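For concreteness, we quote verbatim a single protein encoded this way:
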Amino acid sequence: MKLIRWVRLAFAGTLLGMSLTGCVMAGSPLVGSIYSDSKWDGAVNPGTPGDKVGTACQAGVLGFTLEGDASITAAMKDGGITKISYVDHESTNVLYVYGKYCTIVHGR
C-alpha cells in the first residue's frame, strides 16, 4: 500500500515539475534572463511619409497560453494604414514566464 502511494506521489510530482518548466521567450536582439524590454527597427520604405501608427501584439505565459496576432497586416489594420513607411518591433520578457512581442507599423 505504501509503495503504491509513493509511486502516485512521485508521478504527480513529476507531472507538476514538467508542467512548470514551460518557458516563453519573445524574440529580440538581446534577451535578459530576469527581465528584458527591447525595441528595434525593422523594414523601412524610404520616401514614404506617414503620420498613422498601428500596433499588433502577441503574448504568452509559461508556454501554455499564447494569444494575439503580431503580424504587419494586423498592425496596418489597427492603424488604418494602406502604405507603410517603416516597421518597428518591441518585446518584453520576464523570467521566461511572461513574454510579449509587438509589431508597430508607421505609414499613411
